[in-house]
Tight adherence protein C (Kribbella shirazensis), 312 residues
Amino acid sequence: MSPFLVGGFVGALFGVGLLVVVVRLPFFRKPSVDERISPYLRDLGAPDVFVGVVDSRSPFYAILRLFGPSLRSAARRLERILGGASTIRRRMQRAGIDRTVEEFRIEQLLWGTIAFAAGLVISIVAVTFGLGNPVGLLVFCLILGVLGVLGRDTFLTTQVRRRERRLLAELPTVAELLALSVAAGEGPAAALDRVARSCRGDLAEELKRVLAETRAGDTLVRALDALADRTGLLALSRFADGLAVALERGTPLADVLRAQAGDIREAGRRELIESGARREVAMMVPVIFLVMPVTIAFAFYPGAVGIRLIAG
């Protein structure tokens, strides 16, 4: 690697850092309305993005508090670039994450920054040993940063799927426990309260939220409808709708709950069979493209060698 390229790469990094410092100087930027009125609103106890996310004893807490305004500004810019705030809010709701879209964008920025820093370390090592082009390595770092930002979004989708699987696994047991409580003579609200206090898991937390909404003045039917809209699962939507219809029309609730528990278990059994069939087809790919060619090579190679020796 030419020393001129190394010097240019280091000089470019120094110039970018100096530019960032100069741009952030107070007399080069106009303060926003939020920055001007925030000193007068400190006593109101505005929620901090990083409270509960990072331990205050951690060294990263001071870094996050120091760069908090910059992170919020960058998060707003990222939101304007990517958009989809309603979709992100809906997916976080389905994943059971009680955060705002701004906090999620800050997490995306942190993931992208960590990925960019990892790529930068790899690039510096590569430049030190004379491997690669500095421009290509810089592009590599930028690609890693973008992948880090998109990786947090992909991980959110994974969190949604995991929580939905947990909800589906807990739903038949919760339905049967509700049927037992109702058959024992308890009312719907009392049965929900007993099951929510007895069980552990995501569905129990959702039932506690339903009870909290009813205690706040909402009706049980509307709280169950909100549960169906919040989770987005078809089986849970049918469960909530069945409870709501039974409460409105006076249908025997225990029979409805037992029937729904059986339907959910049957749907889970069908999904398991379908998943097994798909995995069986997927297992044919390594057999056909890996095992079979190796078997054919072992079967025909000795004969080919023998024919070559005879012909020679």
